[in-house]
Amino acid sequence: MSAAVIRPRIGDATVRKIKFRVLPLLVILYIIAFIDRANVGFVAKEMNADLGITTAQFGLAAGLFSIGYFLFEVPSNILMRKVGARKWIARILVSWGVVAVASGFVQDFTQLAIARTLLGIAEAGFFPCVILYLSLWFPERERARVVALFMIAIPLATVVAAPMSGLIMDNIGWLGMEGWRWVFILEGAPALIMAAVTLFVLVDSPAKAKWLTADEKTWLETTLQAEHAAKVQRHGHVSFWRSLAGGRVLALSLIYYSKSVAIYVLAFFTPQIIAAASTQLSNTAVGYINAVPYGIAAIFMVYWARHSDKKRERRWHVGIPLIAAGVGLALMPFAVNNLLLSVALLTVITVAVYATYGPFWSLPSLFLTGQSAAVGLAAINSIANLGGFVGPFAFGALKDSTGNNNWGLALVSATCLIAAAMVVGLKFVRQAEATARIAEEQADAQAEFVTSGEPTK
User: Fold this and answer.
1) Is residue 446 within 8 Å of 1, Cβ to Cβ?
2) Is residue 14 part of a domain?
3) What's this model's pTM, rounded to 2 decimal places?
């Protein structure tokens, strides 16, 4: 039986050990990151009233996070390659923690807009840094599951932050300050604490990991080198400019952009949609209800990523959820003033959008390696996250001009359906998937030979 069918036992043990050592800290950090970027949606109702902010202004301010993120993400990822993940991620944590806490002291729309832009600048690079960092530790066949396990932090962040933010607003008014201000302050402080933890716990690369044995390091290095060689043979070396704005990178950016539109509209406006469906709900109740779709999404996205890895298929594992999200968004206008139906549709939409994460972030690594991966991953995420600006701003403006959410929901639905058509039709992804399967067989054969000293029978 070939190594392509049965992976060397040392490989399975190595992957399990790395998951246990590396992923928990990264998941905690991303939970904190997403809470600090999305909690503006939880406080919107009270904050907007206190500061005299319209829905369009709120959408603009909330979305400005993505502008700062866009401008500084690529430089941040390049610097991470030079400085090392441990120090650079700790620096990012300190920067965004300070800005997140300071957001609790804004006095008007202008100050809120500045704070959101600075938060984007401060947090820029964290996500692509982690995606690149994971590619140094895990073979391609594990990528979707590992990314999904890391990105389970996003729905978990809402599961935690939604009820927590409601409880803070309803019960905390220390020093005469409004509850929504304490949401920013109390939820921003953990980033500062975790910066110190990161410096002590995170390891820059497998070569520096004292908890890996020499055989485990050899297996991992051999496997990753074989995958790298297969990618270079198929796709060649990707230049800086092609990794920054080449056709394949731009295509993936547009697909991820559509997903970002949906993610950020959900993050910033779902609490308001739930509150509008029933006038009897407190902030705490809205928070608990808002957490339900994300709890289900956290479970399903791991299952969907495992299914993608098992089938060695990415395109349809991204496309099918986007179609489901697009249909769900198109049906949302029929659920107005019906809390149960609204929550049911929001659950379908949220689960579908989050299911795309693991399979999608396995796509760039099919053809990007080394420095081009650092630039390409950051470029995809930064360009795509402009959807985090356009989506909330357009949604808020359409609601102000029409008096309802229908046109905004239609816009987000259309972007999801267009993205689904794009990802399913990408020829280079089909070719890259075939290359990855060949690379996996070669990597298994070489790894078994190196670790056992005998060729595969």
Assistant:
1) no
2) no
3) 0.80
